[in-house]
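Field reference: sequence -> structure
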Amino acid sequence: MSNPLYVINVEAAIYREDKYLIIKRSEKEEHALGVLSLVGGKVDGRTSENNVLENSVKREILEEVGVEVSNSLHYIESNSFISDKGYIVVNIGFLCKYESGEARCVSEDEVSEVHWMGYDEILSNPKAPSWLKSSLKKAESVRLIVENF
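Structure field:
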């Protein structure tokens, strides 16, 4: 099928101590060029597998920014949007705890900058889009529950 009915996307709010990993999307990306974002990407639907969402988000993190996260992923939210190319995208967000690796731009076609930023720093950043701030607020709520459990 050349035009899918929808695209499934996963994204990660990766935290390390009191900071989140935020990327600036590359100008070469298909959607949301050059904006601040969480790490993520499309689910590869070419094979059958268990835990496809979890495996996809961990794969995207490693491919885009070169870090590994713990195996304990926590659901944040799901939403949908229309991509710049007109596709309906179903987006699933996860909270992920940093495990290892140095955050860097592994895929320059997808990521042009990588930053560890504090929660308040992101919320007050005029370059952070409203959807990033909304996702981050939900991620922070989940993180506070997880960290205090």
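Note: The chain has one domain: 7-147.
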